[in-house]
Amino acid sequence: MKHPHDIILSPIITEKSMLETAYGKYTFVVAKGSTKLEIARACEALFDVKVVRVNTMNMAGKKRRMGKTSGRTASWKKAIVTIDLDPA
Which of 5, 11, 70, 80 has a CB 3.0–4.6 Å from the CB of 55, allowing a cystine? Predict the structure, then answer.
């Protein structure tokens, strides 16, 4: 089994993601090969919360240029984790 820190790499801190925290939705950069179940278990282990839903999306790398040389940034995976706000 992968360590939770190998699955959840970093949080995404943007205006939009910070507004969603009021509804219990948190956004993370996750490992490319991780599944929704692995992401949910990693969040529960790291943050001691109950995960209700995990939405994932693969983000394509963007084209970048440096003079005549063109390239791409790395592709990555984003996960929006919804937690239970009423742990009863």
Answer: 80
